[in-house]
Amino acid sequence: MPLDLRQSTGARALILSIPAHTGDRALWRYSRPAARLNLASGLGRVVAGMVTELAHERATLTDTEFDAVCDRVVDLLTLLSTDDDGPVRAPGRLEEVEALARRHIREHAADPGLDTAQISRALGWSTRQIQLALQHSGTTPRELIRQERLRMARELLLDPVQRHLTIDELAHRTGFPSAGALSAAFRRYCGLSPRELRQSGAAPAS
Predict the structure, then answer these.
(1) How much is the CA Rg of the chain, to the nearest whole Å?
(2) Are 1 and 20 in contact (CB under 8 A)?
(3) Could you read off the pLDDT of 92-118 as tens digits, one per residue?
(4) pTM for this structure?
(5) Among 70, 134, 180, 202, which lies 20 to 30 A Cα-Cα from 7?
């Protein structure tokens, strides 16, 4: 993107170009294109120091290391841009983050690698923001993931078309690491084992 940087004579500047694929992050949703961030104190000063050191050490870093630091800088800029006026903690913002997290979990619950860190990377929010939003509604990312996986398993168990699936296959399809993990979680939350539910052909009373 074209950049016109106008400063007084002798001024120095560092430019961090952020790829467009990060455009779904809160940094872009809630910051105006020309928004000014306070880089003189607090978190802003930390970010400014990181960018300065990143520029100084660029020649000693591998591409992977450089990209990793840049990702952290973008995460911190996102946090800085959303915390200035407290919008992340505002009820409307909390509800939005919660809704996005719930939708992502619902769509990706079968992924065995799904966790808070993966959710935050996908949505462009920090793990703290994800946890705060779900805590506001009385739950946690881990609990929501487990509930969604159990819901998926229950539907498969009660579907006559899927009766050929073994418990191992059901565990694999619903993101559980093993049949034992699925059975333990299912009995804890539903009072029945997967096999018992399938044999009953009906949903548990709970």
Answers:
(1) 23
(2) no
(3) 577 888 899 999 999 999 999 999 999
(4) 0.55
(5) 70
